[in-house]
């Protein structure tokens, strides 16, 4: 509370120096400490003397009003104008009380000596000049002696008692004044020491500026020498940029071909289907397709080993071969389709001089939710609505592109989707995404958790849940998955 009050009165001095701000806080604190007991004293006098108006009541009320005016001046930014009003006001109030009070006048001599010493200290805090202390102390001391002589003439106490009062009071006044001066001197020395430190820092800064000028000259010399070397490097860099742009254009073209070949708005009767593919920074070999031809519906997902343009070329060759084979024989089985595609592309893969192969699974959709599938790829994950559990269906067989003839190495398998069941096909770019921790891998377990929690929802919402969970992982490979729900 005190901090808030002093901050309220010192707002107008935020841009001034630290010493001035401290003076404002000290003077504000003194005024507040005077105002509170003055208010209590005035209230007590009113209660005890009412309805009569007494001299002490007027003195206390006038002092309180002056203190309020001082606080107002401080708040308005007139600290220098009101700084000396406080000690003068308090001294006048003390002397007026001493003069006009009829009883107990002798007992107040010790009190007034203490007040004089404290007010001298206040003058030092406000002005930071010893002459202010001497002015208040000298004038107040003279007034004190005159007041004491006046009291002695009115009361007529003995000379011994008079001397005792005078000596005791003056001694207390001097001790408090000396203490005030010592405290002020300590603060002044601390401020002077800080000022000296600042000056030394400025001198060091000036030396550093001179050193910087010397360094700037040396830097300019070195800069001219380096400029010639930079000009040569810029010429070399321009040639590198041209080569990079040419290569980057080829890479972007390959990535564009990879995405253009994807099916647009895939549909299969009696199913709700959603697919997603996000290519990696490099050209990848992920491939998925939804083919509707000749009354048959096909779903394909695969992944060419490695990255780069060779992987993209293999993917495009497989896509072309699959479309051509289905159009030539739309009622073929998944295993025969893969045998045919393998025989077409295996020779071309060898011509590339690359050790490439492709994991792939082909599914043919039949009536009543029956799907025939063939090919070795990631396991098929199925959410069973009736049992509310996840079923993992193994894929078997042989990769394509490894051998010239894989006839007899792969077979056809079958699975059935009932109403509400959801099938998930995906590539390893999804399951092998890595988190921030060293051993944190997205994995099949997280996919299973998401599918189990969201399997009853539309496939578009399941896709959103998978991507939201994948957002905190880093993918270094293509991410591809297909969601198929039986309606």
Task: Present the secondary structure layout.
Blueprint: H1 2-9, H2 18-49, H3 55-76, H4 79-82, H5 85-100, H6 109-127, H7 130-155, H8 159-260, E1 271-278, E2 286-293, E3 296-304, H9 309-328, H10 334-352, E4 358-365, E5 370-374, E6 380-384, E7 389-393, E8 413-416, E9 422-426, H11 428-431, H12 443-454, H13 459-470, E10 479-486
Antiparallel strand pairs: 1-10, 2-3, 3-4, 4-5, 5-8, 6-7, 6-9, 9-10
Helix pairs in contact: 2-3, 3-5, 5-6, 5-7, 6-7, 6-8, 7-8, 8-9, 9-10, 12-13
Structure commentary:
This protein is α+β, with helices and mostly antiparallel strands. The protein has two domains: 2-204, no CATH class; 261-486, Phosphatase 2c, domain 1. It contains 13 helices and ten strands. The protein has helices at 2-9, 18-49, 55-76, 79-82, 85-100, 109-127, 130-155, 159-260, 309-328, 334-352, 428-431, 443-454, 459-470; strands at residues 271-278, 286-293, 296-304, 358-365, 370-374, 380-384, 389-393, 413-416, 422-426, 479-486. A five-stranded antiparallel beta sheet has the order 1-10-9-6-7. It has a five-stranded antiparallel beta sheet with strand order 2-3-4-5-8, covered by helices on one side. It is elongated.
């Amino acid at each position: 509370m005190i901090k808030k009050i002093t901050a309220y009165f010192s707002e107008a001095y935020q841009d001034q120096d630290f010493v001035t701000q401290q003076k404002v806080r000290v003077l504000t604190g003194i005024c507040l400490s005077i105002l509170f007991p003055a208010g209590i004293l005035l209230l007590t006098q009113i209660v005890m003397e009412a309805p009569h108006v007494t001299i002490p009541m007027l003195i206390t009320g006038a002092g309180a009003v002056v203190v309020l005016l001082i606080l107002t001046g401080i708040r308005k930014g007139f600290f220098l104008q009101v700084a000396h009003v406080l000690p003068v006001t308090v001294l006048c109030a003390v002397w007026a009380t001493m003069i006009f009070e009829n009883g107990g006048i002798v007992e107040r001599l010790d009190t007034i000596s203490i007040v004089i010493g404290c007010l001298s200290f206040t003058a030092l805090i406000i002005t930071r000049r010893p002459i202010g202390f001497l002015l208040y102390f000298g004038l107040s001391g003279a007034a004190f002696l005159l007041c004491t002589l006046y009291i002695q003439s009115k009361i007529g106490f003995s000379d011994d008692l008079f001397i005792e009062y005078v000596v005791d009071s003056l001694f207390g006044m001097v001790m408090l004044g000396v203490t005030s001066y010592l405290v002020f001197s300590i603060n002044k020395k601390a401020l002077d020491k800080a000022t000296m430190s600042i000056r030394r820092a400025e001198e060091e800064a000036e030396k550093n500026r001179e050193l910087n000028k010397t360094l700037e000259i040396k830097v300019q010399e070195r800069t001219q020498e380096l400029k010639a070397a930079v000009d040569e490097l810029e010429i070399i860099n321009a040639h590198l940029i041209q080569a990079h742009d040419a290569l980057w254009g080829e890479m972007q073209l390959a990535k564009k071909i990879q995405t253009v070949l994807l099916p647009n708005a895939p549909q299969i009767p009696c199913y709700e289907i959603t697919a997603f593919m996000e290519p990696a920074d490099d050209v990848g070999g992920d491939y998925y397709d939804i083919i509707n031809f000749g009354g048959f519906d096909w779903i394909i997902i695969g992944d060419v080993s490695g990255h780069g343009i060779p992987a993209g070329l293999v993917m495009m060759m497989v896509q072309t071969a699959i479309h051509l084979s289905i159009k030539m024989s739309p009622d073929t089985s998944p295993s025969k389709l893969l045998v045919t595609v393998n025989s077409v592309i295996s020779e071309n893969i060898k011509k590339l001089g690359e050790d490439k192969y492709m994991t792939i699974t082909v599914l043919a959709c039949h009536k009543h939710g029956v799907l025939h599938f063939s090919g070795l790829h990631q396991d098929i994950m199925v959410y069973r609505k009736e049992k509310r559990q996840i079923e993992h269906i193994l894929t078997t067989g042989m990769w394509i592109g490894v051998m010239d003839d894989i006839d007899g190495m792969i077979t056809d398998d079958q699975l059935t989707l009932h109403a509400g069941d959801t099938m998930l096909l995906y590539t390893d770019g999804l399951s092998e995404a890595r988190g921030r921790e060293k051993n944190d891998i997205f994995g099949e377990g997280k996919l299973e958790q998401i599918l189990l929690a969201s399997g009853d929802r539309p496939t578009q919402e399941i896709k959103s849940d998978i991507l939201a969970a994948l957002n905190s992982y880093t993918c270094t490979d293509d991410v591809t998955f297909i969601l198929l729900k039986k309606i």
